[in-house]
Amino acid sequence: MSEFWKRTLSGAVYVAVVIGSILYHEVLFLALSSCLAYLAVREYNSLTHPRCLMDLLAELSAVFCIFPCTIALLYPEPYSPWIMLTLLLPISVLVAELWNKAEQPITSWGHFLIGQMMIALPFALMNVLNHIDKWLLLAVFVLIWVNDSGAYCVGVLTAKKMPGGNHKMFPRVSPKKSWEGLFGGLAFTIGAAFILNRFGWFDAITKEGFELLIAGAFAFVVSAAGTLGDLMESLFKRSIGVKDSGKFLPGHGGVLDRFDSILLAAPVTLLFVLLLMQC
To answer: Does residue 1 register a pLDDT over 70?
Structure first.
């Protein structure tokens, strides 16, 4: 099978699994995101330092602390008291450095906290957004995909058509990303949000008379945060000298490669939704 068809098939399966889990039941998406959080933290640990027992504890913590706490938030009774005990796991990982005899224990703590706060926690917050309204979470994924596709198409087109090429955003971080691609992706994303609004995807946060404004603002937040998340992961990979974070999806790279944009877009969008619901 050619690389193109491998990439196409694996991408279709990825999209189908994500959309199917969101639409079917929030517990199914919780299970999926738990697995993805484990794999993503494992990828991060494997890329940044030699594996050790502490890494296994960190990966388990991503599943058995962040996500049980999410369940406790979504379903307060009767799970909360018991689930909150899982907070002992990340605390034990931090304390265990007393016996690890590492030359730089603060580095180990830093890697652990990055894995929990920048990778596992965003996956947990996706479940909170899913609990508020599954169409909002689905909109985040769809708009991220539209933004990436639109930015790529506009970026490639302007690079070929403009004299001297297009204008690069952060060439030392991501040589191919351009300002033209950024605004092109944003335009596609806002257009897609207007279409989704017609199908009622933003009904949970819509205010009468402000439907298009809210849909456009939602798209802007997703596009801006998603682009920054993508750039952050590019900076991370460039700093350690790798092209892909892993081989989770043939032709697409690892879990971090596929979810880099949404790891920042999900918490930022959740904050936007919560603020809007308070208005």
So the answer is: no
